[in-house]
Design goal:
Length: 85
Amino acid sequence: MGRNATNKILQNAKKSKSDEFYTQLSDIESELKHYKNHFQNKIVYCNCDDPTISNFFNYFVLNFKELGLKKLIASCYKKQENRLI
């Protein structure tokens, strides 16, 4: 997607007052693939609005074993319900 296309999307979002922008899972995957060996036996802490929709949290859940993570922790300030992923 070119710069003009991206700018047009942002301008349209501004007009519609839709200002929620999240890092795409594909962007996270393409960047973190270079650091996979750095996560071995590490604890990852995700401070996010809602872990159920956080693409960073989802990336680490989906790749927990492959990355060799020791633990994944997420926190948020949203009212919690008794539901786990």
